[in-house]
Amino acid sequence: MQSRVVLITSLILIMVSGCAGGLKGWGLGEPTPEEVKPPSSPPPDWVLGKGHPRFPQARYLIGVGISDTNAVSARESARSNLAKNLKVKIRSTMVDVATTEQTYIESVIETEVDTVVEGVEIKDGWLDQDKGVYYSLAIVERSLAASSIQDRISTIEAVLQRNLNEGVEAENKVDVKSALSHYLSGYQKAPTLSPLKSALYVITRSRKNSKTQNTSAGEFESRIKDIVHNLNLAKVSGDHQIVKTQKGLTEPLVAKVYLLKGGDQIPVSNIPVVFNYEAGQGELEEEKTSGSDGTVQSTIYKISSYEEANHVIAVRLNYSRIRSNFNGDFVEKLLSPLKNRKATFNYAIQTP
Description:
- This protein is α+β, with helices and mostly antiparallel strands.
- The chain has 3 domains: about 60-140, Acetamidase/Formamidase-like domains (Endonuclease I-creI, Roll), CATH 3.10.28.20; about 145-225; about 230-350, Sandwich (Immunoglobulin-like), CATH 2.60.40.10.
- The protein has 9 helices and 14 strands.
- The strands form 4 sheets. The chain has a 5-stranded mixed sheet with strand order 5-14-13-8-10. Strands 4, 6, 7 and 11 form a 4-stranded antiparallel sheet that branches. A 3-stranded antiparallel sheet has the order 1-3-2.
- Helix 2 crosses helix 3 (about 100-115).
- The chain is elongated and about 115 Å long.
């Protein structure tokens, strides 16, 4: 009898155990903690590219970052995305950029965007539980970003206007080297304005916010080329002498450095020149600088060659010394025509 009770009890336990397993298999039993996975919340609108209700794009620049690593990486991605989109939009608004200026313009864009990104804040985040992907929202207020860029534009324009005014004043005084210095400085700085104005337009979505003037690189370039085109040399005296002894010429070779304005040859002082033989040989004063009346002169101390019937001496603007006053690779392009400015003197050899 006792053995029957034990047998019946065992059968009941087995059946109960089997039923419990069956219920769990049908999803009616209690799951283990490992089987519990919280469902993802619906993605917010800003993740779907529909904007954020608290940060409308009319007032804010926005960047969305994504990372499958962690929230920190997503935040960095959001900042980078904001900066990248801003750079692309700035470049797309710029037209007619010379190839020689592209590297410089790119550096300006990088600098200004980096400045804007310094004010970026992370304002929201979301985790896609199903995919294990982190999202982050970076924002910066348009008015704050625009304010710093507008200040930069105003500062640069004030400098450009000063370069222009001081250049014109120096040119009116026929101080050619000072005028070129101011114009070249303005020419170098002016390209900065284009990317800054483009950045301001992208941020504010309006061209009315830029209270700018029209002091462009083109205006400085035009004034530089005008000086370079009209700066020249002319003979004054000492040409066509006749030499009968080995002592040299009786008269010095005199030339004048001038700036052509309205048909008048205006004397220019403080311009270096160099005298050299083009035909024949002799000893002479080579390097000279124009005086207050624009004149330069060289004395030939000795004639070394009597084989040529005529000797030719050229006086040129000393381009290497003029060029040394100014910095920048762009200077060569603008000033190089000065290499060709010269006047020539001839004298005849008559030997017994």
